[in-house]
Design a protein that fits this description.
With 420 residues, this protein is an alpha/beta fold. Helices cover 30% and strands 20% of the residues. The structure holds 4'-deoxy-4'-aminopyridoxal-5'-phosphate (PMP). Residues 67, 132-134, 159, 205, 209, 231, 233-234, 252 line the site of 4'-deoxy-4'-aminopyridoxal-5'-phosphate.
Length: 420
């Protein structure tokens, strides 16, 4: 068993976060052998034996942040219970070798669970990478095309725009449609799109986090050898997706499936191996695929957290069930907005309103600061809209409980009654 240094080995440990109290039994009650070395003890008890976690969920706020975002409470509690000593290994996941059998079991299970959640076929690689979705804005063109190749970008918000701008450095991208002049409120009809017959790929952002515009259906590239690429950062694992419609899907974890620091890429294997010569090794998908995401030290703890979330989503019944919950939550919030007689307003076209990010404005914009202040008093935080659009935005990812949305809706009605 591993030896662990502690500052005060016999002191009762009490950690209080603003969300949860965790009581650990005094170390003296645990069967431990103090070694000769000062402040060093070796423990034979597992963390689970000695840890009693009392969840006081009333201590947690409802966090409507766009990301990093709220995580499922049971996942946090499980991580907490395993933090100090993972499965009797005598160490936390943060301290493990990424090449050891324990971490391998963690990453393999995370991948297997994600594969069953999204029904990912064998001919797709699943990669756990770093650098956020922003890094993928460069990695996608670097891996999927040669410098002069044409590619199409359908821009329904500022993330798609950023992806396009980054691609300009590595290939020949064209914006085939942009919603910018209308302030990004819709997805165009696919029929009228002027898709390039030679484009190596067509890029979309499946859910624009800032503007709250979500694809409900997907366009098909005109080039029969071209592929659809999607940034799914903010709706990843929020509903079933037919992965086979895509050549590549990427998603930063910090909205729906874990902490920041992990970016997941799902890529069809036949697309691997053609990276441009200048591609940094860390951006070469083939290298990561050949090494099962262990070419270098991966974001181990973040991957472990994603794994706990995937396990939780499977326990909930998979993505069909998760989608039903998300539809219900989004439904009551959009209804409240639409029924407010203009007091609140969501600018996005109804057919493409996001189930994840709900932007809305107040008719009397001078009340926005008060709305945010009052909401915060009620333990509903991070409702301020993105700095580029203003207003409010409620991000209601998988982990936002229905109770959180119901509380927000009740608050909005109350606020309206006071100020209408
Ligand atoms: N794409 C989308 C849709 C996003 O919402 C974000 C982050 N909010 C990004 C890309 C950028 O992600 P990261 O900060 O992980 O690079």
């Amino acid at each position: 068993m591993a030896a662990t240094s502690l500052n005060a080995p016999n002191a009762p440990l009490l950690q209080k976060t603003h969300q949860t109290h965790v009581f650990l039994k005094p170390i003296s009650t645990i069967p431990c052998q103090t070694s000769a070395k000062r402040f060093s003890i070796s423990c034979s008890a597992t963390t689970q034996d000695r840890l009693s976690v009392q969840s006081q969920s009333q201590d947690r706020v409802f966090n409507f942040a766009a990301g990093p975002a709220t995580l499922p409470e049971n996942v946090l509690l499980k991580a907490q219970s395993e933090l100090y000593n993972w499965h009797g290994s005598g160490m936390s996941v943060m301290e493990m070798s990424h090449r050891g059998k324990d971490f391998r079991s963690i990453i393999e299970k995370a991948e297997a669970d994600l594969r069953s959640l999204l029904n990912i076929p064998e001919n797709y690689a699943v990669l756990f990478l770093q650098g956020g979705a922003t890094t993928q804005f460069a990695a996608v063109p670097l891996n999927l095309c040669a410098p002069g190749d044409s590619v199409d970008y359908l821009v329904t918000g500022s993330w798609g725009d950023k992806a396009f701008k980054e691609a300009k450095k590595y290939c020949n991208p064209k914006v085939i449609w942009s919603g910018k002049s209308e302030n990004y409120v819709r997805v165009p009809s696919f029929d009228g799109l002027e898709l390039n017959p030679n484009a190596k790929y067509l890029h979309i952002c499946a859910n624009e986090t800032i503007y709250g515009v979500e694809f409900k259906d997907y366009p098909v590239p005109r080039n029969p050898n071209g592929v659809l690429v999607a940034d799914m950062s903010s709706n990843f694992c929020s509903k079933p997706v037919d992965v086979t419609k895509f050549g590549l899907i990427y998603a930063g974890a910090q909205k729906n499936v874990g902490p920041s620091g992990v970016c997941i890429v799902i890529v069809r294997k036949d697309l691997l191996g053609n990276a441009q010569e200048i591609t940094p090794v860390m951006l070469d998908y083939k290298i990561h695929a050949d090494n099962n995401s262990l070419y270098n030290t991966p974001p181990c703890y973040g991957i472990y957290m994603c794994g706990l979330v995937f396990e939780d989503l499977l326990k909930q019944g998979g993505l069909e069930e998760v989608e039903k919950k998300n539809q219900k939550k989004a439904g009551i919030l959009y209804n409240a907005i639409d029924e407010s007689k203009g007091f609140y307003r969501c600018p996005v076209e109804k057919s493409v309103r996001s189930l994840m990010n709900v932007p809305f404005t107040l008719e009397k914009s001078e009340l926005e600061a008060e709305f945010l202040k009052e909401a915060e008093k009620e333990k509903m935080v991070q409702l301020k809209g993105h700095r580029s659009v203003g207003g409010m935005r409620a991000s209601i990812y998988n982990a936002m409980p229905l109770a959180g949305v119901e509380k927000l809706v009740a608050f909005m009605k109350d606020f309206q009654a006071k100020h209408a």
